[in-house]
Amino acid sequence: MSVASINFQSYPTNLEEKSSLPQAKIIVTMPAYNAAKTLLKTFEDIPKGLVSEIILVDDCSKDDTVSVGSSLDIKVISHPHNVGYGGNQKTCYLEALRDKADIIIMLHPDYQYDPKKIPEIVAPILTGRADIVLGSRLLGGGALKGGMPLYKFIANRFLTACQNFVLGTNLSEFHTGYRAYSRKFLETVPFLRNSLAFVFDAEILCQAVYFDFRIAEIAVETRYFPEASSINFLNSVKYGLSVLATLVKFSLAKCKLKSSDLFKV
User: Fold this and answer.
1) Residues 6+ apart with CB under 8 A from 192
2) What total number of domains does the chain contain?
3) Which one of 33, 56, 66, 211 has the minimum C-beta count within 10 Å?
4) Are 219 and 136 in contact (CB under 8 A)?
């Protein structure tokens, strides 16, 4: 398994230059919950010439997310019941695979991450240098400048250090909501067995390491503002404990001391 922090400024990011990139069907998936106020901004900044399809999965929002999404050139899937962030991602990825995506991007529709970075986040996969690409808010050192709360910054650094130590990686951030996956990766790892909660994100990266997939990072800016989604302090604590528990499961499975369904094909 290889991990790299890669600067892809040499790759074309202008849509007029995209013909020099290998051809692939790129689908953007957006797991949504109460994103009505930011969905349009996010949609408008997605590079339409590069992206083949946009899928919005609404997790039983209490606002007009579905109505706003239905007015745009987006495939909208609405959960009749709230199943959680991890459950939402499962629907996103299954639908993208069903629509024959070669690369699947997860982009939060809360406008916290810059959709214009999509050409950069897919470039490592398109050129065969990675199976997963993470948009790291910490790689460029701008997380706090972008408004990340200090306690979240500290917790992010602590958990990332624990994950790097246990997994043998050297990533700057494990907790980003901006990611790109290859089709092969999502067809290989048993992500449907993952949690319905926020720890899904940590579990899928443990699976990436366990099954020896290549991970790369690019630097992305972050925006924190009232409309941007964010888990509260109590849920952040639960998430942190769940991440640590996942590392224990990984270690036991890797050492063949106790198996886990997360790491069975």
Assistant:
1) 90, 94
2) 1
3) 211
4) yes
pTM: 0.89
Nearest to 191 by CA among 79, 112, 106: 106
Alpha helices, H only, the chain? 39-44, 65-70, 85-98, 118-126, 150-167, 183-188, 200-210, 233-254
What tens digit of pLDDT does each residue of 28-60 get? Answer: 999 999 999 999 999 999 999 999 999 999 999
Q: For 175-202, write each residue's pLDDT tens digit.
A: 999 999 999 999 999 999 999 999 999 9
Cβ-based neighbours of 231, under 8 Å, separated by 6 or more: 198, 239
What's the CATH code of the domain at 50? 3.90.550.10
Rounded CA-CA distance 140/87 in Å is 30
Q: What is the CA radius of gyration of the chain?
A: 17
Measured distance CA(112)–CA(157) in Å, rounded: 19
